[in-house]
Amino acid sequence: xxxxxxxxxxxxxxxxxxxxxxxxxxxxxxxxxxxxxxxxxxxxxxxxxxxxxxxxxxxxxxxxxxxxxxxxxxxxxxxxxxxxxxxxxxxxxxxxxxxxxxxxxxxxxxxxxxxxxxxxxxxxxxxxxxxxxxxxxxxxxxxxxxxxxxxxxxxxxxxxxxxxxxxxxxxxxxxxxxxxxxxxxxxxxxxxxxxxxxxxxxxxxxxxxxxxxxxxxxxxxxxxxxxxxxxxxxxxxxxxxxxxxxxxxxxxxxxxxxxxxxxxxxxxxxxxxxxxxxxxxxxxxxxxxxxxxxxxxxxxxxxxxxxxxxxxxxxxxxxxxxxxxxxxxxxxx
Length: 333
Hints:
CATH topology of the largest domain: Fructose-1,6-Bisphosphatase, Chain A, domain 1
Structural class: alpha+beta
Mean pLDDT: 87
């Protein structure tokens, strides 16, 4: 399935400018809105970038220092930096859009869930990598209008201890995808034997994990390799920038996927579920590719996923915040 493209609608002029007030000069950011009352994607992207940068600053300050590590599960880590980064990200979002809903990995749901906008925040995607000083990990911020991502930012950390560097990926619906301000595109590879793929594995070694192990083995045999980096958002950004041809994974959460899938689509790639259905960030599987290889990949992932469903494995939509209005199957631009 090729990335959906829908025509833009004209927006009205700006309704205000940043105003400073108080001893700490806290900015109140006015926004541009379309004639229908919707917020312009450009304005949403500016806030997504600002919020991600705030989180990335927290991460960069902590990256080579001792960390306080806790466990959400046997191997699912969370650090004090995850929480501090999310606090910084949420502060930037709430300053600009206090009436929007937010879904954060650490803090859960906040804000007004009757809003048509939902911010999905992963303050440190790849916490295990971060905890070990191993690249890559990222700060991810995206905003949905109903089920449709309309603006996103992923700040990837690469390098290593003492030499960390970042790359900033951004996208807005119908506005293109960029890395450090330069346009990016998916690769033009049409042949699986010439492709490099990426996947991920959940913390639970369950039926989905076992099915993906078989997919990993198959695609390792028929491609130039399959990588497992440990950050879904980074994996998708690597597909968007042409470094890899495809990425797939089961049982991710909205904050894992929302930022990356928009960047892939805007870079010219394709996004579906692993059984070939139209994708929503509330789904429980994702397949992203350069588009040229999508049907070939689906020949294997669709069979594996259909078998899981037939065996009674729940791959239905994940948690949707109570009161949040979801209009499935429609591009709402």
